[in-house]
Amino acid sequence: QVQLVESGGGLVQAGGSLRLSCAALGSTFSRNAMGWYRQAPGKQRELVARISSGSITNYADSVKGRFTISRDNVKNIVYLQMTSLKSEDTAVYYCNNWPRVTSWGQGTQVTVSS
Question: With the CA atoms of 53, 57, 58 and 61 taken in that order, what torsion angle do they form, in degrees rounded to the nearest 10?
Fold first, then answer.
């Protein structure tokens, strides 16, 4: 079973940048499509970016052009580079498989102040 550990969140001003990391501990990482998801207070969890095992990427319209997902299949890490952050990006960010998720990690809080 894959264990997911997210890190890199924090408090940032609007317009700023953050890079999130997700360490995936498990032998099947390189074969899995992965996604970054987020959940804002009072809202459902949503997929914001995904990356195939071959590094083909796809983004939600709300983050397209601002966020970049990437992966390192040697280190078993998936990244989310976030730029031009907006207050509406404030959420807890999680990584997981896509489309079939496994157990969720603890997530990492991103707070964007306006």
Answer: 150
